[in-house]
Specification:
Layout lengths: L1 H13 L30 H40 L3 H19 L1
Length: 107
């Protein structure tokens, strides 16, 4: 019973739950691709279509990479905030742990 009370106090007072929120925005992109469909461009029609398709694929790949980079940036920010947050238990036992590490390294 005493152990249960200790755990309850430990979880509520000594190590309270922390909620970190990280938000980010990506800019929207509106794009209009126009192709020349006149009679004089009939021979270049295939090249125009291939170029437009390649451009759209490259743009899509780049936007996926931008999202991944932004996500990694936000995850790094979250990890940094977590590392800056030191709980009470770590502060209480930090000196004892340092002493123990020093005592074991001298042996």
């Amino acid at each position: 019973a005493i152990f249960g009370v200790f755990i309850a106090v430990f979880k509520t007072v000594l190590v309270p739950e922390k909620v970190f929120v990280v938000t980010g925005e990506l800019e929207g992109l509106d794009l209009l691709v126009m192709l020349d469909a006149s009679a004089k461009m009939q021979k270049a029609n295939t090249a125009q279509h291939e170029t437009a398709i390649n451009f759209a694929h490259q743009l899509k790949d780049k936007m996926v990479q931008v999202k991944k980079d932004k996500s990694k940036e936000k995850m790094d920010e979250l990890q940094e905030r977590r590392e800056q947050e030191v709980n009470l238990l770590a502060r209480v036992f930090e000196d004892m742990l340092n002493w123990f590490r020093g005592a074991t390294s001298d042996v």
